Amino acid sequence: MVRFDIVSKIIGQLLFLEGGMMLSCLVMALCYREDDAMAFLISMMLTICSGLIFKHLGRNAGNELNRREAYLVVALIWVVFCAFGMLPLLISGYVPSVTDAYFETMSGFTTTGATIIDDVECLPHTILFWRSLTHWIGGLGIVFFTIAILPSVVGGSIKVFAAESTGPIKTKMHPRLSTDAKWIWTVYLAITASCVLFFHVAGMGLFDSVCFSMSIAGTGGFATYNDSLAHFNSPSIEYIATVFQFLAGMNFTLIYVVLFKRQFAKLLTNSEFKLYCVVIAIATALISYFLVSRSGYGASDAVRHALFQVVTFITTTGMFTDDAGQWPHFTWVVLGFCMFIGSCAGSTSGGFKCIRGVMILKIIRNEFKQILHPNAVLPIKINRQNIQMNHVPSLLAFFVTYILICLLAATVIILAGVDDTNAITIALSSLSNVGPALGNTIGPTMSWSSLPEGVKWLCSLLMLIGRLEIMTVLVLFTHSFWKEN
């Protein structure tokens, strides 16, 4: 049976964290002397007061979660965080609609990056910073962030980590999960700080450097300008962004092992990393060819724009330096595949994940071998380690569920009046937490403000399902989850 008192207690404690985030934005608003300071003050007070109420309701609860409560906490905290996170947008009046404000905030925390704001340049500095901050906190996970800085807040941390982390295989570097979390957040901070430094040296202002770096490290996509990175018209800034998006799409455990333990050989022998690089190389070559042969691009510009768009789509960041909606339609297929496959597990990106792609390829290879050698025992090995056979049904269930949700959501969106191409890419973009869509009605450089209200709520749900890797959310709707035994 689910103990709602401990769930309420943890949600209350985590709301204090969100209140602290709003406090930092309040200080910034006062420094800039813009008209959103009162919005952040009221939002902070409402969030902290609600945290006190939740904590009071769970005042007699223990500290250990069971698996069922861990899944419920993870799903609820993302919903609750977005509900309070939209308050600054609503109260300030810059996003007056509850639907739009919730969509924007869910898009932020899940690092999707789709926006309903047509003109972001009219927003005050603090609102822009808040949008990027939601990306940065949501990148590795709200609860995972808490485990890193306040491990005692989240009881049953391993169960919570399993519910929120990405990828089918969980790798531990240290016996204590809180130590793992701190090292991974160290890598995350290093990527973010380095990106800020490189952007600033390349000529970007400090505020823009921080906002873009948080969006890139979290593989989110929110920008401070309507035309995203294209605003700067700088190849050096584009290449810097490409490199750091690529790093943010890598498994952070692998980066830790390579940088801090100096096991450089693991980079070259890691199956997931190799598939990640191969997909990027092939997709970039294909798109570059079509841009040169069909769209009249020069070779250097074609490679630069193709590489950026491939990396931003496969890492599910979703920024842009060119309008891919105007490219040959074959490139949409390539970018659509990048949207689906995503980058590495244990990163801040969304999508199906390359590790699952490696597992599927090895399963297919083993099936061909089994035909020739019916009695052979063929284990699945990844990075020289045997994968337990119970991972195979889970992988196939995840794959089928992923495809079915995309098809069902696309059908609903089409029935709501959206054209076929846009509907399919909107569903895939939301579920994979990518951000841009591909089509003529809502292209990769456009906001999603024209979508019907019901479709925005559906997309918000898809973003949450995709960020928590489907099963964590869907299990809450099963009868067995709520049974007493």
From TrEMBL:
It is a multi-pass membrane protein. K(+) binds at T111, T112, G220, T316, T317, N433, V434. The chain crosses the membrane at residues 39-58, 70-91, 136-162, 183-207, 239-261, 273-292, 329-352, 395-418, 455-477. It comes from the Bacteria. GO terms for cellular component: plasma membrane. It is found in: Cell inner membrane. GO terms for molecular function: metal ion binding; potassium:chloride symporter activity. The keyword Metal-binding applies. InterPro entries: Cat_transpt, TrkH. PANTHER family: TRK SYSTEM POTASSIUM UPTAKE PROTEIN TRKG-RELATED. This is TrkH family potassium uptake protein.
